[in-house]
Design a protein that fits this description.
The complex is a heterodimer of chains A (about 775) and B (about 160). Chain A is globular. In chain A, about 30% of the residues lie in helices and about 25% in strands. In chain A, helix 10 runs parallel beside helix 19 and helix 16 crosses helix 17. Chain A contains 20 helices and 28 strands. In chain A, the strands form seven sheets. Chain A has a seven-stranded mixed sheet, sandwiched between helices. By secondary structure, chain A is an alpha+beta fold. Chain B has six helices and five strands. In chain B, strands 2-1-5-3-4 form a five-stranded mixed sheet, sandwiched between helices. In chain B, a hairpin with a 2-residue loop joins strand 1 and strand 2. Chain B is globular and about 45 Å long. Classes of the chains: A alpha+beta (about 775), B alpha+beta (about 160). The interface between A and B is large, with 59 and 57 residues.
Chain lengths: ~775, ~160
């Protein structure tokens, strides 16, 4: 570790442009002749479209054209796809209903796109969109998953009878049933995981540019994975072959999962640009974001956890119904299955696990991965169950967890995962010490003296990141491999460009990736540029989600660096007439170990490009590419503790302290890692106390603005106490586990465990709003 | 279309716009200053905060024609070319930004907060002062830290100057 290398608290290279208003986000882009798009969207949650009349709209001032789904279909643009095949337990494939980018005959949720208006200004486009006359024939609506499975429920897709998409299972049902029958104690609980809207602060936007002369498309878009966007738009939506389609994701203002997916708007703006002959830009407003960005969570689960007489868990049985909304979004099928049920062992040695998951269509926005994606749902379920069990068994929550912790690694769970390293008790102990758990009883007495209710709760989470070995995910149904690519390009004067398929939308890759290179070569961090987010510059990549950029993306950089260093050493050895094995790279120099002979880095770079004096047969240049395919998932884990004080008169919860103790493996930049944890915790607290997507019985979204959907604000949150108990990950060259999602995974159960501790019973669902907490305090139970 | 003339970051600038054009859209689209952002449609998120005649204003809550004649500072004009205002520097030092989208509004609000109540800000008053600015990345932890540090620094240099 140096001042700028791995482990250093380096301030971010990208900050200056963001702090001075020079960031370049998609909506900041303008090109000559650019026009503005507005989408005509369904005001009904379920209806047949009998007629679309755009005559009046087309005659409005500034309007260039109004285009609909039949025209899109006639031009051969394909339907949207779900990229992960899941088979039901009877062997049948998931039942995917057709998702037309522009609805053709039926709309299935409020916000479903029907037509696009292109006009000179965004105001004129909006005016004209209101003038498009659509005749609807309303159909019955269902918004909740359990209701959608009931007999007689409205049928949403002809391909999915009874709205069931798949009925999937993992684990051993017979072993679990036997263990439950033989148990000394069984804890039963029903768990609701509330539906959330991801809400990156930058709304989605896209600019489609068709070049008639070159028959070439450029798509600026707010994407976490521009290469996947190009692949999918090319291979499945028939927008254009890959060599005729450039996708650029410039500065992107947060994603949290919601910008992984390829949405209808990107495809339609590209197509509309060709149809109209002008570049077409669309920028979502916030209400549109609530109506159309993929939502997260929305599970209903029944849980049984069996214990023997020594309070050891003998089995876990889970029955989950997951709401996937009106259409299957890109990775929607993977979230409640392989990203969820495979984590149900948590940090515990559980001999037998069985999970059954049914996924369901409803007349709501499609649901897909949101920060944590399946892992928060697993952790919330497990940690609420553990807390409940501890209370029923009359044992302290820490003790029950300690009895059941996995203590030797590698550990094979009954649900696919093979945990490689960890020390769960270290994080538990660190968190309890930081929170002064031992002093809680005294603090509770003080609160009681003031007429307040005080509670404390913990959550021990595990997640699977660094997603994932390509062959493994392929065997589980993924349509893509999940490797990452990197190219290290040394310029003739020794400065360096690193091209990565990872994408930064707040994570600080321009700094951390540069730290890795600066540390390895001993060159100044200013001499290194990170290039990402453009399919014309970076050959191929899988993007950023699932806390994979460090563990997978940086591992690819390591592989490319290995190759660059090997070649540089050969050149240096040749220049200094030394043996290649004796060359070491230190402080920007290539040295002959044990001598005072050295050649500066830039000189080796220059030599590689002048090619006047290279080892015999060596190709000129110093540029290497690598693809890294992970050998396993990584398993970040930790313990979170929340302490709350509740005002029984108002039901208001005050978070008095929040402690996070995490094991992320090796850390590149502690400042950035802490920032990721802070943000994740805030989103987890949002889920636990504030946020909830709410539909009415007609499928109208009641929470479609910041007036109605409670985003965590500065005065809703405390400062957080963080620590790390890192065990290096043995599975990748840097020992990184990943840190992007932990905060959102570990925090909700800690909060709800604390609040239920304070109110003295378990009847509480997220979000624990003041009204719900007040009702819970004052209800008979 | 109406002509709107403003003094923006020390320069007189004008442009034509529809009467319904919000100041934020005028700044972004007519003046080409895209550092001021739009994060919502209900004046809740604060990504569009600018200074108008010395006070912080959500530029989505005022029409461009209403603002005509006023003096405006946007994030681009907060410090000299190539320099950082102490609040901008503190945000960098304390990692008070991640994706950067809320950052311009957050910084402009923070500067106004320090202008109004500087020298005796506390965590509580900073958090209360940020109530109208939403950040989804940072959990506010480091933003609060940055503003308190900037406040202390600005108060310190004011004292030193006196």
């Amino acid at each position: 570790m140096g001042v700028e290398g791995i482990g250093a608290r380096v301030t971010r290279k990208e900050d200056k442009r963001f702090l001075t208003g020079k960031g370049r986000y998609t909506d900041d882009m303008t090109v000559p002749g650019m026009k503005y798009a507005c989408f005509v969207r369904s005001p009904y949650a379920h209806a047949k479209i009998s007629n679309i009349d755009a005559t009046a709209a087309k005659a409005m001032p500034g309007v260039i054209d109004v285009l609909d789904g039949k025209q899109l279909q006639a031009d051969g643009i394909g339907n949207l796809i779900c990229g992960w095949m899941i088979h039901s337990k009877d062997g049948s494939p998931m039942r995917m209903g057709a998702w037309h980018p522009l609805a053709v005959d039926t709309v299935r949720y409020v916000g479903d796109a029907i037509a696009i208006v292109v006009a000179d200004s965004s105001g004129e486009a909006r005016d004209a969109a209101e003038a498009v006359v659509i005749d609807y024939e309303q159909l019955p609506v269902v918004t909740e998953a359990v209701a959608a499975l009931a007999s007689g429920a409205p049928q949403i897709h002809p391909e999915a009878p009874g709205n069931l998409i798949f009925d999937w299972q993992i684990g051993e049902p017979d072993a679990v049933d036997k263990a439950i029958a033989a148990a000394a104690h069984v804890t039963e609980i029903e768990i609701l995981n509330n539906r959330l809207s991801p809400n990156p602060m930058e709304p989605r936007a896209t600019l489609g540019i068709y070049d008639t002369a070159e028959d070439h498309y450029t798509c600026y878009t707010t994407s976490q994975n521009p290469h996947v966007a190009r692949l999918v738009m090319s291979a499945f939506y028939n927008v254009a072959p890959e060599n005729k389609l450039r996708v650029i994701a410039p500065d992107v203002g947060g994603g949290f999962g919601s910008k992984i997916y390829i949405y209808p708007e990107e495809i339609i703006c590209l197509w509309a640009s060709k149809k109209t002959g002008v570049p077409v830009k669309w920028t979502s407003d916030r209400t549109e974001a609530f109506l159309t960005d993929a939502h997260g969570r929305d599970h209903v689960s029944k849980v049984k956890m069996a214990f023997d007489a020594n309070n050891r868990i003998t089995a876990l049985k889970v029955d989950t119904i997951a709401n996937l909304g009106a259409y299957m979004s890109l990775f929607s099928s993977a979230v409640p299955t392989y990203l969820y049920a495979t984590l149900l062992s948590g940090q515990y040695a559980i001999p037998a696990i069985h999970a059954n998951v049914r996924t369901v269509y409803t007349n709501t926005v499609p649901v897909d991965a949101y920060r944590g994606a399946g892992r928060p749902e697993a952790t919330y379920l497990l940690e609420r169950t553990m807390e409940t069990a501890a209370r029923e068994l009359g044992i302290s929550p820490a003790e029950l967890r300690k009895i059941n912790f996995i203590r030797s690694f590698p550990y094979q769970t009954p649900v696919i995962m093979n945990y490689d390293a960890g020390d769960y008790e270290a994080s538990l102990n660190a968190a309890m010490q930081a929170a002064d758990w031992a002093g809680f009883a005294a603090r509770r007495s003080q609160s009681e003296a003031k007429g307040k209710k005080r509670g404390i709760g913990m959550s021990c989470y595990i997640e699977a990141c660094g997603i994932a070995p390509s062959a493994a995910v392929g065997s589980l149904g993924a349509g893509v491999g999940l490797w990452e690519s990197a190219e290290v390009r040394v310029n003739a004067v020794g400065t360096i460009e690193v091209l990565t398929g990872s994408h930064s939308h707040g994570q600080g890759h321009e700094t951390t990736f540069a730290q890795l290179v600066a540390g390895r070569l001993g060159v100044p961090i200013e001499s290194i540029n990170i290039v990402h987010g453009d399919t014309d510059k970076v050959q191929m990549g899988m993007g950023t989600y699932g806390s994979r950029s460090g563990a997978v993306g940086m591992s690819a950089v390591v592989k490319a660096l290995d190759k660059v260093e090997a070649k540089a050493k050969k050149i240096a050895a040749h220049l200094m007439e030394a043996s290649e094995e004796d060359i070491v790279i230190e402080n920007g120099e290539l040295k002959v170990a044990g001598t005072d002979k050295s050649v500066p880095w830039f000189q080796v770079a220059l030599a590689s490009y002048t090619a006047h004096n290279l080892p015999s047969g060596m190709e000129p240049g110093l540029k290497e590419t690598a693809f890294y395919d992970p050998s396993n998932f990584t398993f970040p884990a930790g313990c979170y503790i929340a302490e709350v004080e509740i005002d029984p008169d108002t039901g208001e919860t005050d978070i008095v302290q929040f402690v996070a103790a995490d094991d992320f493996g090796n850390i590149i930049n502690p400042m950035i890692v802490e920032g990721q944890v802070h943000g994740g915790i805030a989103q987890g607290i949002g889920q636990a106390l504030l946020e909830n997507v709410q539909y009415d019985a007609n499928g109208q979204l009641l929470t479609a603005s910041y007036m109605d959907y409670a985003m965590p604000r500065a005065d809703d949150l405390p400062s957080f106490t963080l620590s790390h108990q890192n065990t290096p990950c043995p599975g990748n060259p840097l020992g990184i586990k990943g840190c992007g999602e932990a905060g959102a995974i570990g925090s909700p159960p800690a909060l709800i465990n604390a609040i239920t501790d304070a109110i003295g019973h378990n009847k509480l669902t997220m979000p624990a709003t003041p009204m719900k907490v007040w009702q819970a305090l004052h209800s008979a139970h | 279309m109406t002509k709107v003339t403003l003094t923006v970051n020390g320069r007189t600038m004008s442009g034509e716009c529809e009467d319904r054009t919000l100041l934020v859209h005028f700044i972004r689209e007519k003046l080409g200053l895209t550092g001021t952002h739009v994060g919502c449609d209900t004046t809740q998120c604060g990504a569009c905060v600018i200074h108008m005649d010395g006070h912080s204003v959500k530029s989505c809550s005022i029409l461009a024609v209403q603002a005509s004649g006023s003096t405006i500072t946007t994030i681009e004009g907060l410090a000299g070319q190539g320099e950082l205002h102490p609040v901008q520097a503190a945000f960098k030092e304390h990692h008070g930004l991640q994706c950067g989208f809320c950052t311009p509004g957050m910084v402009m609000t923070a500067v106004d907060l320090i202008n109004r109540e500087g020298g005796h800000l506390t965590e509580e008053t900073v958090r209360a002062g940020l109530e109208g600015n939403i950040c989804r990345c940072t959990g506010y932890h480091n933003i609060v830290k940055a503003i308190l540090a900037a406040d202390a620094e600005i108060a310190g240099s004011r004292q030193a100057a006196e």
